[in-house]
Design a protein that fits this description.
alpha+beta, two-stranded antiparallel sheet, 2 strands, elongated
């Protein structure tokens, strides 16, 4: 698959301490294709960090946490593109 050739996959050093280990990722079907997203709790934490960043600034630890969430978002986006491309190429039919 050529998709991965132009993409530098981010290296995930660690997960944010505030990220729940169970239920952090949700998925739903859109036109028969699974779409992976951060859970509502994770999204709320990211929104809180972004609001605080605008209002009063973030501590170094909070900046690191927000950076980690951004990398996780990159992973989920990549995974969703990969699954969508496999589905549109017909490659996913080999699993059914």
């Amino acid at each position: 698959m050529t998709m991965a050739q132009g993409f530098v996959f981010p290296h995930l050093q660690k997960l944010p301490d505030s990220m729940p280990r169970d239920g952090a990722i949700s998925f739903k079907l859109e036109e028969g294709v699974p779409v992976f997203r951060a859970s509502t709790a994770v999204q709320a934490r990211v929104e809180l960090l972004l609001e605080k960043q605008l209002e009063s600034g973030l501590t170094d630890a909070e900046l690191d946490e927000l950076d980690q969430y951004e990398i996780i978002d990159d992973y989920l986006s990549y995974l969703n593109r990969l699954v969508r491309n496999l589905h549109s190429d017909g490659s996913a039919s080999q699993f059914t």
